[in-house]
Amino acid sequence: MTSARDRGPFDSEGPTGMSDGGGRFSRFFGRVFENPDNPLGWSLKLFTASGIAVRIHLFTIVFVIAQLLWSIPRGHSGVGFMAISMACLLVLVILHEFGHCFACRFVGGSADRIVMLPIGGLALCRPPERWRAHLITTAGGPMVHVLILPMTCALLWFAGLGSVVLFNPFAPSLALSHPAFHSSGAVLLWLKIALWWTHYVNIVLLAFNVLIPAYPMDGGRLLQAALWSRMGREAATEITIYVGFAAAGALGVIGIAANESILVIISAFALWTCWVERRRLRGVGELGSEEFALGSALGPADDLEDPWTIRRRAKARRAAAMEQRELDRILEKIAASGMGSLTPTETRTLKRVTKKKQREDGGGA
Hints:
Blueprint: H1 21-33, E1 43-49, E2 52-57, H2 58-70, H3 79-106, E3 110-117, E4 120-126, H4 131-158, H5 172-176, H6 186-211, H7 218-231, H8 233-257, H9 261-281, E5 292-295, H10 307-337, H11 344-361
Helix pairs in contact: 2-3, 3-4, 3-6, 4-6, 4-7, 6-7, 7-8, 8-9, 10-11
């Protein structure tokens, strides 16, 4: 039977101590959303490919539905166009994350999970602890866009849209107003729009990932790996953090000046992620963790763990270290003066720690 601390928020027990319907609901909720105790971890499984499970966060589903509803009123882009936009974004982000995963496996690491978030995606990768392995793993995502780019350019050219291969990234609607889009039937029109929008989103994702040297964008990871090869991991991480703070701040200023809320949101996530990395570097978290998450251009990327989870883990490690020191002291006292010299508190501590270690050694039996 689980203790009260182990039960989830949807578990409850009746007077007899037997789990009621709340417990069954909690187990069902846990199977569907995987992490019922933490809303940051609520996600649904989409599919599995090459041993990589792809999941979509519940908030991402809400975000997509909200975007579709927002596009319905007159004067907005239209639900059809918004549906194409969301589909292109999700597909390209998934491909980006698969690029990270396959690159990680190529260098001898492992990667088995992708999570789609409201403004991007994360690939959980475990590359070898070498700068070159981290560099290749990070570069795998942007390389997907590099490979897609000539294909979309060629398709646009054959579709008679060669003149819109180059466009103003801050005003994509100008390209969509080109006469070539409106000189065909409805079905062909939508296919052309989907093709061009894939081309546009692909370039935007590539630019954001490579050109912004801040976590969680790949530009921050690439900078860290490049510096790591010259000055070691910790120094490289610290420099990347402060470069990231500056880049994220500049992006926020640009977003405010241009009245682009998405840039302000990305800036906020970048600042938050750099702050998390700084805490890890200062010893609150684990700088050398064997697992980290690589995000797409718009994803908060370093880890699925929020700062409070990192803090709890650090607190648990400190408590375990203090417990071990206390046990060592008690054992030294027994060796010097015998069991009879222990105080009642020391005796209880010895019994508790001994039972705990026995359970751990026995696999929790």
